[in-house]
Specification:
Strand order of the largest sheet: 1-5-2
Distance between the termini: 22 Å
Bound molecules: flavin-adenine dinucleotide
Order of helices and strands: HHEEHEEEHHHHEEHHHHHH
Radius of gyration: 21 Å
């Protein structure tokens, strides 16, 4: 019996785990090839920007925290700042902020860096994989705390006590067997949902979450869909980062990089709600892909994407188009003035999260943190910048404009999440064969 496979409906999505996994089987290989093309592997980022919220006390000195940068003359001519500046004028309408170094327009969910900013460096993403760096302790804890406690609305996902949250649980942390059992945490189900919450290792935010799940809920306390989505997206990103850390982990005794099953169990396996949020984040990105395909291809055309890369992107979009719908964005921000206010609050919070990325004290983590927050912000922009009254026509001239770096960030973020799902599958196999001689 396979105890390690989540099954059933994913909350707040309109699909189940099985569907998402089969879609991922179709897409992962294509995404993996796409991010290896020159267009998608070179990215410009400013890693020197100061934390705007607190004094960051020193940066991570581990070798693994360092980023290898690429000289501008190694970047294909068409994507260098001066050339891209001309192309971007036609592909994306932008308004400079008063500070002149960041850009924000009403449709943006992120504070975007100016691609033409001379402060930024070029990075080859393939040469700087997201993996274990050793960045931890008060600095990283402060960043996550600031994100959850100050910017995530109330970090309490809604659980409808009237229906089982997971039919039969996620299957990932059963009460007496499975991952929870392995590390002694135990996975007692909480409330009706059978979340399989582990007893140990709770942060403040999750203690509140546990409290909220433990008993019958007052309907007035229920958190609205938009706020739940915000929390789920952040938690899903956090879970995906954790999966990459555990999947490409440095064994400090042998100096070898390899998957670390204990790391995965402690950070994810014991917390099925984190796993569910990771699937949810992928679902949201998938929806943005299938809904905005032609627009993504148009952005690539407008920013000198190569023919072969265009073909690959088009094929990816076509496959995604043929997949079942994963998320209903029209159920969000609908309902007049109040909804508009909520949307603007949602944007403000998300923009704040993008600013907090400058407080990450490890360059490699900052690179991928910024990239993925930009990628998620781009997905939100694609999903929510249309007039709710007139359903999307991505071919329409008024469709929201993207820059090359938003497209690069979106596709790479989709790939990060897709790879995390694939890694979870590998961890399942490791779990199934645990204890066997190598
Ligand atoms: P943390 O992951 O720091 O979590 C802090 C607290 O948040 C936990 O105690 C728990 O209460 C809660 N929590 C944990 N996961 C979730 C979740 N999914 N949903 C909701 N709540 C949760 N380290 C690397 O080695 N490589 C990287 O590439 C990397 N990138 C990072 C990017 C960013 C933006 C940040 C802020 C940190 C990054 N780190 C990276 C550090 C890494 O995320 C952890 O902070 C570090 O490994 C310490 O982990 P931890 O077990 O103490 O818990």
């Amino acid at each position: 019996q396979n105890y390690c496979k989540p099954t059933g409906q994913i909350h707040d999505a309109c699909c189940d785990y099985e569907t998402v996994e089969s879609v991922n089987d179709e897409l992962f290989g294509r995404l993996h090839e796409l991010v290896a093309t020159p267009y998608f592997r070179y990215h410009k980022v400013d890693l020197a920007r100061e934390c705007p919220f607190w004094e960051e006390d020193g940066s991570c000195m581990n070798r693994a925290c360092g980023v290898e940068t690429t000289e501008e003359d190694h970047i294909p001519e068409a994507w260098r700042s001066h050339a891209l500046g001309k192309l971007n004028e036609t592909s994306a309408r932008k308004t400079s902020s008063p500070a002149g170094c960041t850009e924000i327009s009403d449709s943006d969910f992120c504070v975007l860096e100016d691609e033409l900013d001379s402060e930024g460096v070029y990075v080859d993403l393939l040469e700087n994989p997201e993996r274990f760096t050793g960045y931890a302790g008060p600095s990283s804890a402060r960043v996550w705390k600031a994100i959850y406690e100050e910017n995530c609305f109330t970090p309490v996902p809604f659980v409808d006590a009237s229906r089982p949250a997971f039919e039969g649980g996620t299957g990932f942390a059963p009460v007496s067997s499975g991952f929870g059992g392995l590390v002694g945490g135990g996975g007692g189900g909480a409330g009706a949902g059978g979340f399989g919450l582990a007893a140990g290792g709770w942060g403040e935010s999750e203690k509140r979450l546990l409290g909220s799940l433990a008993g019958p809920r007052d309907p007035d306390e229920e958190v609205c869909l938009e706020k739940r989505v915000f929390y789920r997206v952040i938690s899903g990103l956090h879970a995906s980062i954790s999966v990459h850390i555990c999947d490409d982990y440095l064994d400090q005794r042998t100096g070898e990089w390899a998957p670390n099953l204990d790391c995965f169990i402690t950070r994810i396996g014991q917390h099925p709600e984190r796993l569910e949020n990771m699937y949810f984040t992928y679902v949201l990105l998938l929806r943005a892909l299938s809904r905005s395909g032609p627009q993504l291809v148009r952005t690539l055309d407008a920013t000198a994407g190569e023919r072969e890369t265009r073909d690959r992107l088009e094929k990816l979009v076509r496959v995604a188009d043929g997949c079942p719908s994963t998320f209903d964005e029209t159920s969000m921000f609908s309902g007049g003035k109040e909804a508009e206010l909520l949307k603007s609050e949602f944007k403000d919070h998300f923009r704040n999260v993008s600013r907090i990325m400058d407080c990450v004290g490890c360059d490699k983590c900052r690179l991928w943190g910024k990239m993925q927050v930009t990628g998620l912000g781009t997905a939100l922009k694609l999903l929510f910048s249309y007039d709710a009254a007139s359903p999307v026509d991505p071919g329409a001239p008024h469709a929201v404009a993207l820059s090359r770096s938003e497209l690069v960030a979106f596709v790479n973020t989709l790939h990060r999440l897709s790879e995390s799902l694939a890694a979870v599958d590998r961890f399942r196999t490791l779990w199934a064969h645990r204890g066997e001689p190598a």
